[in-house]
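Lab notebook: predicted structure, single chain.

Context: the supervisor wants predicted structures on file for every construct in the current expression panel, including those that have not yet been purified. This is the next one on the list. No modifications to the sequence; it matches the entry in the shared construct table.
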Amino acid sequence: MKYNLIIADDHKMFIDGLMSILQDAPEFAITLTAKNGAQVVKYLDINGTDQLHLLITDLTMPEMDGIELNSIVKEKYPALKTLVVSMHIDGGMIDKLIRNNVDGYVPKNAEKEELLTAIRTIVKGEKYFSTEIKKAYTDAMFENKKQEEVSLTDREVEVLKLIAEENTTQEIADTLFLSKHTIESYRKNLISKLQVKNLAGLTKHAIKMGLLDA
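Prediction complete. Output recorded below exactly as produced.
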């Protein structure tokens, strides 16, 4: 069985390196090399994916990056497998790719053997993620969960919103008909609950929670 691959990367050195690694694996043939995601999408729109098995893509590329490319491919051509090979090991990016059904993710500094293992595993229909990718993903998910678990009372949310809107302690006390002292203790509690250092940190958190959109 011969497997046809597409490689998308804006660094010629990486493409050349990958091609030389694949020379030792006669079951793989390279159908197309592209500088960015837009070139790949254009090619697929014209030629379809009947003869293709795997797209290997970098993440950071001009015009269309790997995240967008993966999501377009998975939406329009779900049969085509995708493997990300990138220097970026970012939990949020990995999460986005996994949500969009990426088939694998290997860091660019992976050993030749691991790269071949990843490619072989994916064309056979399984997923492949390097150990450090799995770790970055789990760490990010754990961090998100920790943040989600911080639940604020309605009153704390009110105080946080007013702090973020740059009201003074006295103004907040007047607005909520509470004593200045009570507002101070709310502020201290919020700082420790949200694990921030100061008022700027509280404001950032309020923006993240969408409290200032209204």
